Records
---
Amino acid sequence: MFDRTRNSNIAARTVLAAGVLLLPALASAQSAAAPEKASQAAESKSTDRWLHIRVISSEAKGETVRVNIPLDLAEKVLPAINKDHLRDGKVKIDEAHMQDIDLRAMIDAVRSSKDGEFVTVQSNDADVRVAKKDGHLLVHVIDKENAKKAQVEIKIPMKVIDALFSAGKDELDLVAALHALSAQGDTELVSVKSTENTVRIWLDSKSVTD
């Protein structure tokens, strides 16, 4: 059913590459920032939100990659990137692949519904579960078919999803989603475990990963 392990690895590498590209901008922003009073710095430090990405390879010559990105920096840098479908912090949805699917109507239906399981699929290829609980959309996938079997868990706050779909009909607003994410507490967003890699994406107020 999936090339899911391969796709999740590609996605993780793409996110990591984006994070690495943001690091020079972070250094520049820090060097240009004016000094603040000690009390203001302490307050800012306690309220800063950081997006962390960690990929641990299980291969014999494996490596561990860690990326830490302050959300406020990502909000400022994204609008400056104009490449392919990404423009001004928004991603253009390919209408050719979205025919007959009204994503906003689907999201609105999920938002207004009670907590519960919306989709449960069990097959020889994979187990898939989609649910809503405590204001979060949950997706749980176990890939059984691939030799590098993977378990994927995604937990996205509904407020972040609403912000993501707040742009035009055929756009996703990444900056608005990041802004909404910055208002969330510490939370784990994505977890991928396979025989090849372990990937974790989470949000907290620390500037370093464990």
Note: The chain has one domain: 4-204.
---
Amino acid sequence: MRIVCLSGDGIGPEVMPQAMRALAALPLPLELDERPFGGAGIRATGDPLPRATLDACLASDAVLLAAVGSPEYERAAVRPEQGLGRLRQALGLFANLRPVHAEGVDVLIVREFAGGLYYGAKGTRPDGTVFDTLEYHPSQVERIARCALDFAQRRAKRVTVVDKYGVLETSRLWRDVVDAVAVEYPEVAVDYLLVDNAAMQLVRDPGRFDVLLTENTFGDILSDVAAVATGGVGLAPSAGLAESGPGVFEPIHGSAPDIAGQGIANPAAMIRSAALLLEYGLGHPDEARLVEEAVDAALIAAPTRDLGGSATTAEFGDAVVGFLEAAVGRPV
């Protein structure tokens, strides 16, 4: 099973090795293939997504991505983030899964990943007005709705659709399409919540939710809100899935250039992204659970500075690997 590893920028080259160490500690036939991406891709080839990197991703079983973005390219014509959008489109990613776990909280945010404001028409008019267009086709909504309802069917059988129904035509489309698809899932309860209320509830009472389904921009923002409300973005992983072919698994945190190179970044989200890769990318849920347990143990034994501890990035990785090496002696 071939995994392409994209360390990218900022703290990426520090946290990625810890995830690779965790994967290497498992009794699985994994081939880890490191490739330049983002700022590293620009420096190597002038392109944030070099052709060789893209070809490797397309031929892989899954892609593990650390972080993208660098201040040195902030005002450049070619930026690291451009490679990320191209990679997602090339792989056909349409569903972004962002699980949120804490005491009494088990929420799965299902974010539409291929449409909406980020991919709609944009530009500048002669009078200086700049515009970005929020667009959705019914087929895009149906596809992500089925995805969310399928997950809910295997969980607590509840889906909350987050929108801005009173203002946006796209939200009205979402409700019509979700209602039509939900008829095929009679065991799943579906309700609707406005996005501003959803943000408040994620802070006040995240345990009330099971599966949250929403469009691209709302999902991007709400998953960060949920992560901070339940421990911080340093702990939160995500999975980008396609209808077929490899997915991309990455932490939701950014490249954090302010702490890059100091060896203090929390690699928990990166390692948890590797766990999602094992479960949703390679079909190994038992090994995924083992990695999750290892991260949970490391959070207690070797917390990093952002969690009130003093462990370095590598020391946190040591704790995870130590747990896994002790655990693989028993059946996985």
Note: The CA atoms of residues 101 and 292 lie 11 Å apart.
---
Amino acid sequence: MKRLFYFAVATAMVATTAVSCGKSTKGKMDGEWTINEWERIVPSISDNDTYTTKINATSYSESFTSGSTTTTVTGTVNQATWNIKKDGTWDKVVDFTYVSGSTTYKYTITSSGKWDFLKGVSKDYKNNERVVFNTLNSKSTRVTTVGGSSYTNSSSDTYKDGEVSTVYLITESKGKSLKLSADGSNDYSYTSGSTTNTSTTNTKETYSLQQ
């Protein structure tokens, strides 16, 4: 099964028009939020397969659907927090564990960057109804334990400001609750010799955060 582990990076996603928006402020966004619910649905680039990744409280799952067949991996969320700071910076930590046969996998995925509201009033949006998160750093660490022995693999990336970003629509911002959604497209291109192939995936993503 191909693995997504999307928490580290979000690429060129934008929020689309929604029926209900939630205007916010930097003070209301500020704080360390628990990722209570999260869902990301990504169609495959090369075919009609679909990847779905979810968090529901302490449960984690990844599903791969091809035709009428769905394969699912489930695990336990050890930590899922998103620290959004009033100074315009943010950092996210997602740590989860799952068991496959006699092997235990533990992933820790961290990312950080800058954020700000999108300004301007239009027929669809008002000020502070959309927020953009730019990813500047990301790191993924996997600890594999089998037969009493553990092995660690890790990777890290650094990005320029604006190179990797996601625009979210704020669907709710009140008290200790914050909800975000993005429904946009990711464009990919691959060049071989004089031929360039371009593909687009229409990705959907939602977050429900609690303090």
Note: DSSP finds one helix and eleven strands in the chain.
